Amino acid sequence: MTLEDRVFISGNCVIHQFVRVGTLALMQGGSAISLDLPPYTVANRGNAICGLNTVGLRRAGFAPAERLELKQLYRLLFREGHNLRAAVAEARSQFSSAPARMMLDFVAASKRGVCSTWRAERERRDLTFDESPRPGLIYFRSMSVRLLSRRICWGPLAAALLALAVCSAQAGAARWAGP
Q1: Around Cβ 102, how many Cβ atoms within 10 Å?
Q2: Which of 40, 59, 78, 125 has its CA 20 to 30 A from that of 150?
Q3: Which residue stretches of the chain are H helix?
Q4: Please, which residues have CB within 8 angstroms of residue 75's CB and are 6 or more apart in sequence?
Q5: What is the pLDDT of residue 167?
Q6: What is the DSSP letter of 133?
Q7: Are 129 and 172 in contact (CB under 8 A)?
Q8: Is there a single domain that holds both residue 84 and residue 149?
Q9: Of the candidates 101, 120, 139, which is a domain's last residue?
């Protein structure tokens, strides 16, 4: 594990032994990462980042123009849905400040892969019909239906919603499977 300057790791965080954590990165309590955490970002959940460490950047004395440029770079790399290599190549021509170069060099040099936004992970997972390995949990597109217990007495409305969800999931799976 490699920790760069001024990294903040909260309680109950788990970090894989070969992971790099970038400068001024922050891990929220209970986070777990097995991929590299880019500089100036905030990690939450498993291998997910939720934004820039703006408070840490402000306290470290970054100028407002540098913070704005990092915000724009973060959006380009992690929020716009581009392939990461293509986004890094595009960003190298657009961003010139030292902090932006540091982030770009970190992402480009990653050997394990880089944490991404939890929205991107959710969208990637929701694009296809997926029966969860946990019984009673069905995912499809942007909706999840949870059956928490077999002992729950479902009312007519809940049963109708469940039937609609399962039918929609099956139709979605057929649509994604193609002809």
Answers
A1: 18
A2: 125
A3: 54-59, 64-74, 84-94, 98-108, 118-126, 156-177
A4: none
A5: 58
A6: S
A7: yes
A8: no
A9: 120
Question: How many structural domains are present in the chain?
Answer: 2
Long-range contacts of 137-141 (CB under 8 A, 24+ apart): 138/165, 138/166, 138/169, 140/165, 140/168, 140/169, 140/172, 140/173, 141/172
23, 96: one domain: yes
Look-up of token digits 């300057």: 5
Q: What is the CB-side half-sphere exposure of residue 99 using CA atoms within 13 A?
A: 25
Burial (CB < 10 A; 0-12, 13-18, 19+), residue 25, is buried
Strand pairing category for 20-21 and 2-3: parallel
In a shared domain, residues 56 and 30: yes
CATH number at residue 61: 1.20.1180.10
Supply 107's token pair.
Answer: 């992402």
In terms of Cα–Cα distance, which of 77, 79, 136 is closest to 110? 77
What's the pLDDT score for residue 151?
A: 42
- The label of the residue with tokens 């490699």 reads 2
Q: What is the mean pLDDT of each run of 10 residues along the chain (179 residues)?
A: 92 92 94 95 91 95 96 93 90 94 95 81 49 45 40 52 58 51
pTM over 0.85: no
What is the per-residue pLDDT for 160?
Answer: 58
